[in-house]
Every structure is written in C-alpha cells, then in structure tokens.
Amino acid sequence: MTKANLTSMSGFFLMGFSDDRKFQILHALLFLVTYLLALTGNFLIIIIITLDHHLHSPMYYFLKHLSLLDLCFISVTVPQFIANSLTNNGYISFGQCILQVFFFIALASSEVAILTVMSYDRYVAICQPLHYETIMYPRACRRAVIAVWIAGGISGLTHTAVNFSIPLCGDRVIHQFFCDIPQMLKLSCSYDFINGTAVAAVTTSTAFICLISIVLSYIHIFSTVLRIPSAEGRTKVFSTCLPHLFVVTFFLSAAGFEFLRPPSDSLSATDLMFSIFYAVIPPTLNPAIYSLRNEAMKAALRKVLSKEELAQRKMDLKAIFKL
C-alpha cells in the first residue's frame, strides 16, 4: 500500500521512520526486542507480586496495576508498527485507528492517574505513617484503582469522539508510526480551532492537575525525609521515591512536549525521539526502575525462581489438575 493508493481508501497511511526497506526491517527488529523486554519485565512484576504474599501491600498493589497498564499501553502501538514494517505496508484502517487512539489515550491517562495515586501512597507512608493503614486500607486501594481505569476510559472516549468528529481534508497521511492525535489534528479542516480549545485544553489541564498533585506530594516527602536522622533511612526512602519521580517526569515531559507544540508538516528526528520517549520507553524501563533498586522485589524474584519454589508450584499444578 502506497500513499498514492490511499486516495480511494477510508483509512490512513502511517509514515513510520523510513522508506528504506533495510531500515524498516531494522526498526521492526529493534521494536520487537524492546517489546519482548517490556512484556517480560512487566509480566515478571505482575507474577512476583501476585505470588509473594510479603508484597501484598498498597505500594506493590499499585505497582502491579502500573505493570498491567504498561503491558497494554505498549501493545497498542508497537505490534502494529512491527507488522507494518515487516510487510512494508503503512496502511491502517479507519476502525483500527479509532481503537488505537482510544486505547492509547485511555491507557496513557490511566498511567498518569496511577502514578499520581502512587505518589499519594508514598506521601501517606512517609509523612503520616501512624495513619497509613487507616487511610490506605484494601477497599480504598481497590476503589482508587477502579477510579484510575474509569478515568482513563472517559479520557479515551472524550478524545476519540472529539478527534474523529472533525472533517478531514487532504491526504490521510499521518507523520508518525501510530495514530497520534497531534499529528492527526493536522489533517482536520478546522485544525487551529480544535487544537487550541478542546483537545489541548482537556489533555493539558488533566496532566497539569496530576503533575501538581505529584509535586506537592514529593515536596512533603522530601521535607520529611531530610529530617530523618539516620542516613540509612534517608537512603532507603530516596531509593524508593526517586525512581518514581524520574518515571513521572520522563513520561509527562515527553508527552507534554508532543501534545503542546503544533504538529510539523513532516516527521523530524525530534518528533520521533519524543514519540518513542512517551510511547515505548516508559513501559520498557519501568520494570527495571522499580525492581533493580528494590530489595524486596529482588528477594521475591530470587524466591520465585528458586528450585524449591518451582518444585512446589509444579506440585500445586499437578494437584489442581487431579481434582
């Protein structure tokens, strides 16, 4: 499928990264490796937290849902791009593009929301430890996660409805490797009005509220940590909080750059870099960021992978199948 053939089609043409066949295959392989790393890392976190009862606390409960969101988030765009690159076909149908926009925005919004909830959890744990169990009780945590998923779904529906209700003008060529809203808005006949009011306002206001909440939480956290007399205690808290702050800053800054600036007429290296920064890298790096410096996660991983634990799991499975 070429751009010339697209005039009679109802879908879109994703430009991707290159028209060179060798580079298309190289990009597909690089994205495939990245995708497999993201799947492996996030699946491991979900399995470890589920199996290890010592990790059944609010912090790891939210981390498990972050990993689930990351699994879904990276699966919305990367497999489609890999298939397009390997088949040398950048075409995506109108229905596929609608679904991709909905799930991408819904999961991205849910990820920002869960990161906000996680920052509040750390604030209560560090700044109000005596009230932690009262505030972050199991039912409250479940309600918070339900609210995260619902908020993401509403955001996805809103953006999808607004974006696909706009009449499109010109060639349906998207200068991106997935159906990205900022690039799609360039195709609309009323681009300036929509970009300046509806979509940009909803996206930036929601992200700004979450960012302010996270910043306020960490201001209180760091002011409390600096009063801890024990250097070991400060190190332990910083090793837990700093990775979280890094993830939030990385994700929101890259997404903010992409959504706030006017889309260009062609795909530049900067466009590619920032789209990868918020669409691909966070779901891939989150497992490493949250587990490599976390002693409890590393101990749980060693336990899950130990011969004794594997033998016990095998016996449990045999007992289940005999029932």
TrEMBL record:
GO CC, any one term: plasma membrane
Molecular function GO terms recorded: G protein-coupled receptor activity; olfactory receptor activity
Principal cellular location given in the protein's record: membrane
Keywords: Cell membrane, G-protein coupled receptor, Membrane, Olfaction, Receptor, Sensory transduction, Transducer, Transmembrane, Transmembrane helix
Localization (cell): Cell membrane
Membrane topology: Multi-pass membrane protein
SUPFAM superfamilies referenced in this protein's UniProt entry, alphabetically: Family A G protein-coupled receptor-like
InterPro entries: GPCR_Rhodpsn, GPCR_Rhodpsn_7TM, Olfact_rcpt, Olfactory_GPCR
Highest taxon above the source species: Eukaryota
Domain G-protein coupled receptors family 1 profile as annotated: residue spans: 41-290
Transmembrane segments: 25-49, 61-82, 102-123, 144-162, 193-216, 237-260, 272-292
Function, in words: Odorant receptor.
Family: Belongs to the G-protein coupled receptor 1 family.
Record's protein name: Olfactory receptor
Originating species: Chrysochloris asiatica
